[in-house]
């Protein structure tokens, strides 16, 4: 099983980041992560998408990804270079969509206490975020069960393909 | 221990006698629907899997409604792709421009949802249909695709918040004011992962149109869905309309709720969500500074039904839209459009100086047909007012019910219908 451990620099956002902010609706005709990534947070943080180093960690407060069901939002998060998302809480739809496309997400109640621009190691299975400079650990809710199964397959459709193979259909 | 409506529907669709919050299930679904945005992303690069065919061509509806009539060439190509998909899969319910509606107005209008069913839609406002006593779940594109092939959806059994509505709403107070008030109480993440179950004697004053509005904005407090137990009003709506038989589920008297909230509707005033959050809600008091508006929008999946247009016409009849205001009215479906036209409502709107648009999600999501420039302000009957939602990132959207929107169009500032002479 994949370890779902990521090390990268953190980029921070506040509470209630909505999907209109993450990916404005005018880009919903686009569909690949290469197309969507450059428009991540385009209106509220112009130029940010281009500055996200591959493997960065997105850190946010409560209710990250609230609003619409657009899967374009987590696709844009991944497309802009983030390896995973750590938030105090997620909207239901963003959380589902992220797991389904194989983007690891971790709930860490104290996410907003993590200092900006930290070098973090995120262990989604253990549910621990470690600040690599100070050694401070932030405890989250480990990914388990069905959601970990989906992520381990590489997303819900890869999971389905495995299931279809196993029943020989 | 008893069960809620939601738990009963989930149990019945999972071959179980009972289920409890927190459990993971893979229930069978009764109906699946998608718009062009979610469907297009869903089928992208997965054509090889579609060769297996969809789980049931009679239980999948495709409704291009967001960027239609095609707003540009990219949207036209996307709609073509989705249309070809619907044709190649021989889907029975494909709704083209001219025969369509906004999905959350059209689905229940066409009888494609029955009480007691699990309906899954690739759009967050799918919760609208819980007003029929169904479990209506909004999902993203990958969930949609999984359901398309299997007729199943992974679900965690949610806890339920019981919302008891009591009393008779005052003049001009609508279900929109109730749900905006609740959004103010709970905040936009206040019901994350939970279901809102509306009950109480105030429901007897709410038509199905009003109930769809109520349930529509459940997702604005983060809820998984909303549900209302079927009663005579529901059954009257379903009879002669629903394409499949219905099952009536009621919550047991000893069902377990994580929270109960009581709202005295009789004492509730007109509610406004200020920029830039549906949870930033205040009562319209008439005191304080007047807030001028550049645009008024009436429509959307929240308030684009016949009852809404009748209320707008009642206020606009014989009046003029303020010279500094653009008023856009968008009926929610072709059926609503035709009925409104036959009732003479369009004459009222056009004579007042308002424009009547075709059914579309365009203006509400800042897609097309009514976007805002920088510094502009709109009062809208839709459901979201996040920064940049209806256009330029430096524009502002206020949310209200139809009476306040229509009154504001006449007065030129955010106003109560009582102010319209």
Word description of this protein:
The complex is a heterodimer of chains A (169) and B (421). Chain A has 169 residues and is of the alpha/beta class. Chain A has seven helices and seven strands; from the N terminus they run βαααβαβαββββαα. Chain A has a seven-stranded mixed β-sheet with strand order 4-3-2-1-5-6-7. Chain A is globular. With 421 residues, chain B is an alpha/beta fold. Chain B contains 14 helices and 18 strands. Chain B has helices at 5-12, 36-43, 47-50, 73-88, 103-109, 141-150, 175-186, 208-216, 232-238, 300-303, 306-316, 334-342, 345-352, 402-411; strands at residues 24-25, 31-34, 60-62, 93-94, 118-121, 135-138, 155-156, 160-166, 195-199, 225-228, 259-264, 271-273, 281-283, 295-299, 326-330, 354-356, 377-380, 396-399. In chain B, α2 crosses α4. In chain B, 60% of the residues are buried. The interface between A and B is large, with 43 and 48 residues.
Give a quick precis of the structure.
Chain A has 169 residues and is α/β, with parallel strands linked by helices.
Structural descriptors:
heterodimer, A: 169 residues, alpha/beta, Aconitase, domain 4, seven-stranded mixed sheet, 7 helices, 7 strands, 30% helix, B: 421 residues, Aconitase, domain 3, 2 domains, five-stranded parallel sheet, 18 strands, 17% strand
